[in-house]
Amino acid sequence: MTATTTAPARDEDDDRTPPSGDPFDQDRLPTPPGATGVLLRSLLSPLRGRVAVTALLLLLQQAAVQAGPLLVAYAIDRAVPAFRDDDNGPLIAVAVGYLLCAVAAGTLQYGFVTASARVSQDVLLDLRGRIFRHAQALSVDFHERYTSGRLISRSTTDVESLRELLEEGLQELVMVILSAVYISVLLLWLDLGLGAVAVASFVPLYLLVRSYRRRAGRVYRKRSTAIAAVIVKFVETMNGIRPVRAFRREAANDAEFAVLNRRHERTNGDALLEMARYVVGSRITANTTVALIVLWGAYRVADESLELGVLAAAVLYLRRLYDPIDRLGMFLNSYQSAAASLEKIAGLLAQTPSVPEPTSPRELPERRPGLPGREVVFDDVRFAYRTGGEVLPRFGLTLPAGQTVAVVGSTGAGKSTLAKLLARFYDPTDGSVLLDGVDLRDLTGRALRREVVMVTQEAFLFSGTVAENISIGRPDATRQEIEQAAKEIGAHDFIAALPDGYDTDVRKRGGRISAGQRQLVAFARALLADPAVLILDEATSSLDIPGERAVQRAMATVLKGRTAVVIAHRLSTVEIADRVLVMEHGRIVEDGSPAELVAGTGRFADLHRAWRDSLA
């Protein structure tokens, strides 16, 4: 069987070369055409009814607001002359109507703001959840090339840009559009000539808005990327604060951060400059139009071809039409920022896992009685990176159920890649990896994680209690089962001695306990999960001698009867193995029991001799 997948970036065991070049370029993910619109529709589709109610509230609110100048025109041309003739009715009606319109506008505005706020919060809640779930679902190779800082930027800065648009800018846009429609219709109804002049002024305003959108779009894409670069640098520096202090990188980091910070400043300045150009152009257009209409209207009033109330209403409407022009600019400001952010989020959500779930999953056969391990077969497997660099040339390998296999070799030999293919962090470029005859690609992620567990050198612990960290592999485990796993590993005594025992919070990355203790907790986690295949990737390389011996005792317990692949640099770890594979340049150059290879004259014998000499 063969398969082709997008291969990941190199890992540290394979001479990984960090990407170079402008950090801004690394922030870009390809966004398929139309993906932004599809995302927006999918967010709003479940809220169609509430969006319709919100729109209706705004329509009614604007109708109440725009009735005011009509009442003013009626008062000037009809109610005031009637009042002078001792008829108070029309003027009282105007006053009552104006008051009712004000109350209705305020009430409807309150309803609109409340409804729109709920819609926007539900949209943002859904979007943040999608980003988090999708980021977890993406394959390991994606996370190796797309930093956590950029993911944080997508779910914070970019979502915040959308919040500003939904809660502030969108309301301004809709109100400006509705005002323009209402006022245009009313002006044309009041006086065709004045209305025509007002509508004609929309042409230069439209061209101005169109030009601003085009220029500002480019600026805000750069601005969003600049913000992400600043966040990435900050997160990277804080996560690596120990090596930063150890190698006195503060000054160099300050200089690099200053470059990114200045670029962020420049993009902000460019955005403000585009905004200033738009505001100046829109005000010139608006003021010119108002001046023309007032002068022409005054002339017509003097000529008695236009009523004074109609002119007063027209001036009030023009003020209401053009006063929001600056607010429209602020909306366009928010819109461009949000559009750039939504494009980046859509690009992220459009990424597909390079290790997908099977369309027709298969079930594994039951484990054989008395033997918790399973047979592993690398069937005609080859692995190469997306750039074409081959890491593992075509090979075949069978690991019998219950066998412990140690894999040794120099850095870059392909040891970790072999292990990650077995854990299905990657899929082979050609060939297949079989577990009891079933291709790993035919197993669901949940089924695979029940059968294959990897314990890494870092032994990552999450914030939370010791018990919670042990039970990650089996969330339904009882406290008795958790403690039993810790006892079998040899971790119970040190856990019991912690301030709150198994309920002690290990804090961020398990920083409250030592590296050796974290490793023992990781082994207890693996034992409780009861996998058929266990992968240990440099599990003792960062430990001192006492810590290594404690972990090796734990390893003997957890590996018993299971199929195990042990990636080792320290040859002391190899002593527990039934079989040793020696790798060079992605190829298996030696294969045999530790005793056979030590007695030979090959690469492993040389490594073993050098190791024994170092102990002496």
What are the key terms here?
about 60% helix; four-stranded antiparallel beta sheet; disordered N terminus; alpha/beta; about 625 residues; 20 helices; single chain; 10 strands
Condensed summary:
By secondary structure, this protein is of the alpha/beta class.
Question: Could you explain how this protein is built, in words?
Answer:
This protein is an alpha/beta fold and 616 residues long. Helix content is 61%, strand content 10%. It is built from 20 helices and ten strands. It has a six-stranded mixed sheet, with helices on both faces. The chain has a four-stranded antiparallel sheet with strand order 2-1-4-5, covered by helices on one side. A hairpin with a 2-residue loop joins β9 (579-584) and β10 (587-592). The two termini are 50 Å apart. The model is unreliable at 1-26 (pLDDT under 50).
